[in-house]
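To whoever is covering the structure queue this week,

Two jobs came back overnight. Logging them here so there's a record in the thread.

Job A:
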Amino acid sequence: MAESIGGVSATASPIANSSGSVTNQAIQVLQGPYITNTYGGGISCQGPTLNITPFVTGSASASKPYEPFYNDPVYDMRDLNEDGSLDNPGDILYYVPTRTGQKDNYNLSLGFSATWSKPLDRKLQDQCKEAAAANIALMQQASANKRLDFEIARLKNCGELMKAGIYFHPQSQYSKICADVVVTNPGGVTPQHRHNIPTSTKAEDLGGVVAN
């Protein structure tokens, strides 16, 4: 109702154009669990963890078809007879090569992300390491005891069989089982004692027994 008041045009015709392009790229770092070492007997110790994540990102943008320039027409705007009208309206005199400014865009990013995680309670870590060392020593001692039991059983069985005259053939692949077993006095009889009897040719010894 107010557009023609007083003979003044009050028509509003605002024009707004907006265009844009946004590309978001992000690198996600996934935090892994602590490295856990298990030593048996329910003993597990967690140590510091370093996570390194390399990444490569890239992007490319291009317009198709690619046109480095275009021909901008120049129209005939001449009025040779000066009658206020164009003599050759719509006629093109020539073309002007005009660069479009079109170009391809490429982006490449290289890098890595790293996180360092470490338990805060050092005392618990030290206790876990001590428990692990004690458990390892216990397992080594148990293994040594079993080895000793095996060697004693091998010595006993090989000795008893050798006393009974039973043994592997020397060319048998199993003869080395008892190869280092030595049996002394297999019959159970003490070795015979021998003494040298001195000899004499004196006259007082003739009445006795002369041993040769």
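Job B:
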Amino acid sequence: MSFLKTIFSKKPVPANQTRTTLNELFKTMRESVIVVGEDTRIFASNQAAYDAFARLNGVLENKRLSEVIRDLNLHEAFRRALEEEKVSDVELALVGTDKKYDVRIAPFEFDEKRGAIGIFYDISQIERLENVRQEFLSNISHELRTPLTSILAFVETLEDGAITDDENNLRFLSVIRRNAERMHHLINDILELSSIESGKITIEPKKSNLANLTDEVFTNLSAKAAEKQIRLVNEVAAGAFVFADAARLEQMLTNLIDNAVKFNREGGSVSVGHTQANGSDVISVTDTGEGISGDHLPRIFERFYRTDRARSREIGGTGLGLAIVKHLARLHGGEISVTSTPGKGSVFFIELPKINQ
């Protein structure tokens, strides 16, 4: 007789066979399942339940539920199922972990004895994604609101008569343009990061001349560097090549060097170097800026994370550049890292798989 026939058979079956049948049935379930008797001792469970709850508790069967999971709401829901035959839904957060569950508890009869079954739906990943979504919406709303508020204020000023103020109207229009461009760059970076994270961006690595790429980036950013009298130093050997998608490598270098210029001190320098270590090509971007404190370093590559929000908004930037660099480096099979000394500057490293000779 199959275990399904046993479950639905009206003939009484031995308790050990019932336990075996339940365990066989529960093996097919992805959710964690725990069945308790009237004494609240666990009668049956599945492998998912062992993976979730038995690491520190050993065998689950014959233990009281309170020995395995300590949660008053959960225990009360099982009590209602056992004594009042009521179905309950509760949320469970495991203490000391980041695991969260939606739990459905219902009466369950076996061997003509009253019991209760709990089915634990793991919602940890859903919770994390929801938190990421909410944080993203909060950040993007704030980043868009700041330039939009400025645009609306100056448009209103122009409408109120400043359009004929020859001394200020062009300055007001310049502020509007600058903030509109900031919003444009932000939206472009959001779309770019979204495309990378969703796998829509593909790369075509090939032998690329790093020195030439660095010179091109320096040329594009030379005017911005000149405003702060920052020296751009290319320390890459003329014959140095790396295996990368040239366009995407240029994008990574542009983001890093642009940041190094923005957050540098006046009269400072930004240098790009190249070494080989542990089977990788290592590209370094070194600046002489204020540096980054140690408590910020672990989060520096997160979307919208800024060590100094007020200053970042003052000098521009979307807060997405380093996140884009991180994803592009990983798309190449490489990695991005940073070391920094507050008051002296920072060094960003792009590690790429070495060219096969």
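Note for Job B: The chain is about 45% helix and 25% strand.

Please reply-all if you pick these up so we don't duplicate work.
Q.
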